[in-house]
Amino acid sequence: MSHLANSRRLYPLLLPRDYIRRRRAIRRITNVLLIAVCSLASAYFITRSTGGTGFRARKMTANSMPASLGAVPPATTPLPATPVPATAHENGYELEQGPYTVSEVEELVLHDAKRSKELHVRIFYPAEAGKYPVIVFSHGAGGSQNCCDGLTRHWASYGYVTIQPTHDDSAVQRRNQGEENIQFMQAVREALNKPALWESRPLDISYVLDVLPSLEKRVPGLLGKIDVNRIGVGGHSMGSYTTEAIAGALIDLPAHPGKSFADPRVKAVLCLSPQGPGQFGLHEHSFDQISLPYMGMTGSLDSLGPVANPRWHKIPFERSQPGDKYHLFIAGANHMSFITPRTRLPGRTEPSEAIFDYTNSASLAFWDSYLKSDARAKSYLQSDALEKYSHSAVKLSRR
Questions:
Q1: Can you say whether residue 380 is alpha, beta or left, with left for phi > 0 and alpha for psi between -120 and 50 degrees?
Q2: What does DSSP assign to residue 304?
Q3: pLDDT per residue as tens digits for the range 312-365
Q4: How many CA atoms within 13 Å lie on the side-chain side of 205?
Q5: Phi/psi at 38 (nearest 5 deg)?
Q6: Would you state the pLDDT for residue 25?
C-alpha cells in the first residue's frame, strides 16, 4: 500500500482530495508530530538530573541557632535521618544527602584574647552521637562564613563537623563594623595588597583549632563529637591561599620573608582555585615543602586577569612533595563554579550543576580517604570513575 494511501487511512477527514494540497497537509501534520516529539525529548534532557541532587545554599533548618559571646542554647532534637545507600561510582561519589541529620550553629562569636579580636564562625555538625573529623573551610577574599554551604553542609551529612570562620577582609563584616560604604570588589582589591590580611587568615585557622575543645562546652550538640586527631582544612580562592599557608607554603611578609604558618594538627588540605606564585606573598618555591595529602581544583574558565589562569592554579600541585597529591581540571568551570551550583557560565561546555556535583564527589572522596581512611573512597580517587561519570569533562591528575 502506498504512503498516500496509508495517509488517507490515517487521516481521512483531514486530507483534501487535491494531490498537491494533500501532500502539503501531510507535511504539516508530520511536522507538528515531529516538533511535539522533539519538544518532549528536549524537555526531558533539560530537566533530568545530572548526576545527583542539587544543594541549596543557606537553607535554614529548625535546629539552626544564632549565638553570641554566651553559651549556645541546646538545639531542638532533630528527627532521625533515614540512611541513604552508598551512591554507585557510575553516578558520582556520594552525591545524595548523607545518612546524618545536620544541625547548624548559624553564628558563634569566639574571642581571641591573644590578638584582641572576635572571630565569627558558622558550624554544621551531625546530630547523631559519634566522634567526627573536623573540616575548617576558609572563604575567598571579601566573602564570609555564609559562603559555600552546598559543600560544607553536604560534608556534614556524611559525618563531619565543618567550621567556617569569617576573616578580616570580609565586606559583610567590615560593613557590620561601621564601614557602610565598603563594596565587595574594593574589599577584594585591598585583600590582595594588605600583608596584614595575608598573616591574619592562617592565624584565624590555627586559633579555631586551638579552641576546638571549648566549642563542645559552648555548643551542647557538639559534646563528645569533635575528633581533634582528624582535621582537614579547605578553602576557595584566597581561602586556598590560607589553606596552602596552613599546609606549609612559605609566605614572604614585609618583615618576615619565608614565613611559615604550617599547623601540624592538619592531616589533609583541599584548595578550590589554588593560588600560585606572585600574590599573597607566595613565590616560586613557596610550595616545595608541602607534604600533606592535597587536592586542588581549577577549570578552563578559572582565569582572573593575566596571572591567575588554569596553568597557574596547578603550580601548587606540581611543586609540592609527591605522594597523595590530586589535581582536578574541569572543562567549563569558572572561578565560582566550585562553591555554588548556580554559576552563570557563558559559552559553557558543562552545566553548572554538573560541575558542582564533580566538586562534591571529588572533595568528599578526598576527605573520606584521608580523614576516615576509607578504602572505598581511596579506590575511587585512584580510578577513572569520576572522569567516566563526567564524560571526560574532568581530568584527574595524581602525584
A1: alpha
A2: B
A3: 999 999 999 999 999 999 999 988 888 888 765 555 545 788 999 999 999 999
A4: 33
A5: -65, -40
A6: 54
Grid cell, residue 145, equals 562564613
What are the distances in angstroms from CA 330 to CA 108, 306, 356?
Answer: 35, 20, 10
| CA nearest neighbour of 184 among 220, 124, 135, 238 | 238
| Residue recorded with cell 564527589 | 361
Q: Where are the beta strands (DSSP E) in 166-281?
A: 226-236, 250-251, 259-260, 268-272
387 within 8 A of 396, measured Cβ to Cβ: yes
**Dihedral angle sign, alpha carbons of residues 236, 237, 239, 242:** positive
CA dihedral 240, 243, 248, 254 (to 10 degrees): 70
- Cα–Cα distance, 256 to 243 (Å, whole number): 19
DSSP-derived letter for residue 222 is G
From its phi and psi, is residue 332 left (phi > 0), alpha (psi between -120 and 50) or beta?
left
Rounded Cα gap, residues 150 and 329, in angstroms: 20
What pTM, to 2 d.p., does this model score? 0.77
| Alpha-carbon dihedral angle through residues 294, 300, 301, 307, given to the nearest 10 degrees | 70
First CA to last CA distance, the chain: 68
Please state, in angstroms and rounded to a whole number, the distance separating the CA atoms of residues 399 and 396: 10
Angle at 334 between CA 332 and CA 339, to 5 degrees: 115
Task: Give the gyration radius of the chain's Cα atoms.
Answer: 26
Which of 126, 156, 158, 149 lies closest to 225, judged by CA? 126
In one-letter notation, the amino acid at residue 382 is: Q
pLDDT in tens, 196-205: 999 999 999 9
Nearest CA-CA partner of 219 in 102, 108, 138: 108
144: helix, coil or strand?
Answer: coil
Q: Give 164-176 pLDDT, tens digit per residue.
A: 999 988 766 666 6
Spatial distance between the Cα atoms of 282 and 245, rounded to a whole number of angstroms: 9
- Separation of alpha carbons 211 and 389, rounded Å: 40
DSSP code for 140: P
